[in-house]
Amino acid sequence: IHDFPMRKEQEDSIDKAYDYFQKNRSFKSTNDFLWNAKMRFGKTFTAYQLMKKSNWNKVLVITYRPAVKKSWKDDLNTHKDFKDYVFLSDEKIKDLNPENKNEPIFIINIL
């Protein structure tokens, strides 16, 4: 299990995205936010931290690349900050417990 902290630039990115989403909560506005970050920035790790800070309990990530799916799964399952989260891929969604609506789940789907 990893225990590394966020870097300053990751924290800054999370703060900016969090503030943006708080100000643009209306469905009438565009809720797109782009991190133009270099390779090895830690975009997946940073996105998970944003999800956690925002208290998002259900998140759907859609990708067409199996390597991306593996990266999201590994980041979630190997860092202490996400020990209470569950990773469900498309083949495991049927195992989702509909009774536990507060269970924090990140669902990764491959198209």
Short descriptors:
single chain; 111 residues; alpha/beta; 3-stranded parallel β-sheet; 3 helices; 3 strands; 35% helix; globular
Explain what you see.
The longest helix is centred in the N-terminal third of the chain and has 16 residues, at 8-23. Helix content is 35%, strand content 14%. Strands 1-3-2 form a 3-stranded parallel beta sheet, with helices on one face. With 111 residues, the chain is of the alpha/beta class.
Structural class category = alpha/beta
Number of strands: 3
Helix count, DSSP H or I runs of 4 or more residues? 3
Helix proportion range: 25-40%
Q: Provide the low-confidence segments as ranges.
A: none
Strand order in space, largest sheet = 1-3-2
Note the main sheet.
3 strands, parallel
**Quaternary structure annotation:** single chain
End-to-end distance, in Å? 29 Å
Reading the helices and strands in chain order gives HHEHEE
Overall pLDDT:
82
- Estimated share of beta-strand residues: 5-15%
Specify Rg, calculated over alpha carbons.
Answer: 14 Å
The shape is globular
Short characterization:
By secondary structure, the protein is an alpha/beta fold. It has helices at 8-23, 43-53, 66-77, and strands at residues 58-63, 86-89, 105-110.
Give the topology, please.
Elements: H1 8-23, H2 43-53, E1 58-63, H3 66-77, E2 86-89, E3 105-110
Parallel strand pairs: 1-3, 2-3
Helix pairs in contact: 1-2
